[in-house]
């Protein structure tokens, strides 16, 4: 008699790529189309167990279940704002690690605009980059997320509706976890996966050159946002203490390479901090660095977090900075803020959650 209870498999199926699935089924002597079937169930239909895969032979479902899991993370908290068009969920990844994901729905308010539903995903629990204005950066780094954990955040929302866009702008630095980021992107765009348009996906990076090069080389064709935040290296290093080896010029060059390799526009994100990086003179300095580049600047008025001594500039200062860039021929927009009531700026839910728990404990 076998007294050993089989342990629950911890290997998540979505940590495998589509090619891995094909190899697996060929090794198991299964027909080739099994990879497509299983992918379809796991991504498009959002299955959380192999039991659900009704068109698969029972022995195959059982074999899959002994080796893999498809479980979705438990939801620890959900918050909504903007009349329900912004939803934020805190997902439990086990071992005391929780990660947040946000869905933002945009109406097609202009005739040429399509209705969009954008999910903002995290790629790490915490972040090691330490940006002084970022709640995640101030929490420090816990660990990288796996491809399955990144995908789980999108699947959390696709199970209840359509998702058209995914932005890698949640907690963590995607290009400090490049392999998992690229693996997740491949499933998002795979025709047998979520079948999304690469144009609808944006990876935002603090500016890690090796990662940008790899993203360009892999030709995943996603949009790239480089977080610049300063027109010169001296100020940039004060805001991003880990930016050491990378200069603004390096990043402008990386953007140029990405544009020529992918034919995609690059966006520079610029968090505006009152009296720190938001003067018109700094706007002109920035414009000079970006001239000749097919780039776009996205201004993000600072979202007050735990950051000591930092303030959000007034509306007038934000507008003046934007106009100064535009006056120099640089395309600049101000990021539409969503879910301000629930502090939907990425990187804040976990902090709030921790604080709330603390309050109930006291
Ligand atoms: N690590 C990546 C992606 C996650 S942060 C990156 O830094 O690009 C997503 C964006 O939010 C970045 O542009 C980041 O600079 C910005 N951000 C973080 N905290 C912010 C805050 N408190 N106010 C405004 N923007 C912030
Ligand atoms: Fe990390 Fe991005 Fe926050 Fe900087 S802004 S600490 S890179 S998550």
Question: What is this structure's SSE topology?
Answer:
Elements: H1 18-27, H2 34-44, H3 58-67, E1 74-81, E2 86-94, E3 97-106, E4 116-120, E5 124-126, H4 135-139, E6 141-144, H5 147-158, E7 165-168, H6 178-189, E8 201-205, H7 209-217, E9 223-227, H8 233-239, H9 248-262, E10 266-272, H10 280-290, E11 295-301, H11 315-327, E12 331-334, H12 349-361
Parallel strand pairs: 4-7, 7-8, 8-9, 9-10, 10-11, 11-12
Antiparallel strand pairs: 1-2, 2-3, 3-4, 5-6
Helix pairs in contact: 1-2, 5-6, 7-9, 10-11
S-adenosyl-L-homocysteine binds near residues 269 and 300.
Structural descriptors:
single chain, 362 residues, TIM Barrel, 2 domains, two-stranded antiparallel ribbon, 12 helices, 12 strands, binds iron/sulfur cluster
Q: Could you explain the architecture of this structure?
A:
By secondary structure, the chain is α/β, with parallel strands linked by helices. The chain has two domains: 13-67, Orthogonal Bundle (DNA polymerase, domain 1); 74-358, Aldolase class I (TIM Barrel). The protein is built from twelve helices and twelve strands. The strands form two sheets. It has a ten-stranded mixed beta sheet with strand order 1-2-3-4-7-8-9-10-11-12, with helices on both faces. The protein has a two-stranded antiparallel ribbon with strand order 5-6. Helix 7 (209-217) runs parallel beside helix 9 (248-262). The termini are far apart. Mean pLDDT is 89; it is low at 340-345 and 355-362. The structure holds S-adenosyl-L-homocysteine and iron/sulfur cluster. S-adenosyl-L-homocysteine binds at residues 133-134, 169, 173, 204-206, 227, 269, 271, 300, 302-303, 305, 345-347.
